[in-house]
Amino acid sequence: MAAGNAVLTRERIIGDIAEILDLHDTEITDETNVLDIGLDSVRLMSLIERWRAAGAVHADLVVLASDPVVGSWIRELTEAAGNAR
Predict the structure, then answer these.
(1) CA dist 5 to 1, 14, 17, 30, 35, Å?
(2) Which residues touch 23 (CB under 8 Å, ≥6 apart)?
(3) What is the pTM of this model?
(4) For the segment 12-28, what is each residue's pLDDT rounded down to a tens digit?
(5) What is the largest CA-CA distance in the chain?
(6) What is the DSSP string of the chain?
(7) In this structure, what are the phi and psi dihedrals at residue 33, rounded to the nearest 5 degrees?
């Protein structure tokens, strides 16, 4: 799948965060601060690598770490995918 066609959806992003933190996806909302629910830098890097492997080459550690709110990540990751096309 080409990078521009790889789509990270809201559900995929929340599901991946929930999986890496061993939470149910219903425990995570757009307002959730990932630092408050236990995401650390090692797990953040794991998520970024997972998303890059799925084609989200625009996933950036500094950008995501600077605004650790799920809704911001969804906007960043899904809008960047749309712009990459």
Answers:
(1) 6, 20, 22, 24, 30
(2) 17, 37
(3) 0.86
(4) 999 999 999 999 999 99
(5) 34
(6) --TTT----HHHHHHHHHHHTT--GGG--TT-BTTTTT--HHHHHHHHHHHHHTT-TT--HHHHHHS-BHHHHHHHHHHHHHHH-
(7) -90, 120
